[in-house]
Amino acid sequence: MAMMTGEQYRESLRDGRQLYIDGHAIADATKEPLLERSVDWIAEGYDRFHDPAPNAAGPYYDIPGSPQDLREQLEKLLEWDMVTVTTSQGLLALLTAAARMRDQYPEYADRIESYFEYCKERDLRGVQTITDAKGHRKLSPSKQPDPDVYVHIVDRNADGIVITGAKMHISAAGLSHELVVMPTKNMKPGEEDWAVACAVPVNTPGVKIINTTYAPRGHAEYHPYSGRYNMPEGFVIFDKVFVPNERVFLAGEIEHSATFAHSLGLWERLGGTAHLAETGDLLVGLAQLVSEANGIADVPHIRDKICEIIIYATLVRAGLEAAITHAHATPEGWVYPSELYTNAAKHFGAAEFSHMVRHLHDIGGGAILTAPTMDDLRNDEIGPYVAKYMKTMEGVDAEYRMKLFHAVRDITADTYGGWQLVTMIQSGGGLFAQRLVAAKHYDIAAAKRLALEAAGLA
Ligand SMILES: Cc1cc2nc3c(=O)[nH]c(=O)nc-3n(C[C@H](O)[C@H](O)[C@H](O)COP(=O)(O)OP(=O)(O)OC[C@H]3O[C@@H](n4cnc5c(N)ncnc54)[C@H](O)[C@@H]3O)c2cc1C
Predict the structure, then answer these.
(1) What is the set of domains in the chain, with CATH numbers?
(2) Is the minimum distance from the CB of 230 to ligand 1 under 6 angstroms?
(3) Nearest CA to ligand 1 atom 34
(4) Alpha helices, DSSP H, located in 381-455
(5) 87 within ligand 1 shell (Cβ under 6 A)
(6) Ligand 1 within 6 A of 128 CB?
(7) Hey, which of 233, 427, 431 would you mutate to test ligand 1's pocket, going by the most ligand atoms within 8 Å of its Cβ?
(8) pTM confidence score
(9) I need a surface site. Which of 137, 149, 176, 371 has the fewest CB within 10 A?
(10) 214-237 pLDDT, tens per residue?
């Protein structure tokens, strides 16, 4: 087995997978205009990491063995495309779940470890397929009028299981090779059929994926960020999909139904926090450049707002650092980040993100939305007017200033910006989930002791 090149990755997508977008079937994902750039981005990653040696493997298959490994992995992750990130996070989550299940279910733990090697040997990309359709939010899976709103086992035989249901918002699903399916929540007695975790190749009969994307539908130049970095989300339908035993990691053991989501939540929130820290610094940079280009960098209320974004970005990064520094080790010697710091930092970063974007919008002004396009600037008739009125001072010409505004709009106020606002909140399971996990891992007894002492009650 060897690593794939970008071209081999493109070829691997022509495997009979059933993809849809905007109401039509996709014959070849590599030629679909709204997916083309996403495919290129992933293919570029394959070419970048490609090593022809027979047993070579990409760094996204590294298992951190120390906090320093974890830190280095997070730094690398910021440069990977989305599906390479989900491959690493999803497999680390599976391994974390295997470590937590090994005592009780060694066979499942062994299957997970074999599956990890299977993906690594073939240089496959995988996505985390967790969030169910969920129907009426207050009803548990077994009480739903339609049992399929949570993915469940509809048949079992000696060779494997058959599953039906749908998983929503699955990042990069249509451009990946493997769907790593896990239960979205804890299942109760009587809900054994919904306690299912397994791995399904994207081209398995019965799998259909409806794609949505924030890839620009207009001029790529007008979307300097999302024109280069975009990835579809998949609405993944499982219609009586057969899964062989060696790919089944849970099939009815309800006591471990939440183990997978908790393990993944941890890795996804750690990656989300790293992304928030990076984006916080990006917001600082944009706010500073725009204020300089507008001549207001030294105005007190502008400085104040930029300072607030600086403090935000620094505190998110501090939480990330603490999550790594206080990492724990599994009996196998694999390292996973602190639940408390990961969840607290992710919650803070996500909850305050829109507030920081508000500061950037306040500082930037209306041209964030209305700066003309570069084609307007290049037009012989109107271009000179655009150049004249978009210039603010010596050294800040129209092109420079317009490119800054286009970046701010694209990253925070257009299709990708809207995607980002919601994703910061919902990725890794939403704010409430992060509060619950942070509170669960906080040392409340120590806090109470402190309070009792302060009150003279100890
Ligand atoms: C861009 C994007 C990418 C994503 N990528 C992935 C991915 O790759 N893989 C994946 O598995 N998931 C992915 N997700 C899904 C994400 O994890 C979910 O959106 C998130 O967990 C919230 O679930 P939901 O969207 O079904 O919203 P809901 O569950 O409907 O939640 C909405 C609100 O209702 C509240 N709520 C829901 N149920 C109850 C209840 N019973 N009682 C009280 N309050 C309740 C929630 O706390 C929340 O405040 C992605 C989401 C987005 C936006």
Answers:
(1) 259-448 (1.20.140.10)
(2) no
(3) 137
(4) 383-390, 398-412, 415-426, 430-441, 444-454
(5) no
(6) yes
(7) 427
(8) 0.89
(9) 137
(10) 999 888 888 999 999 999 999 999
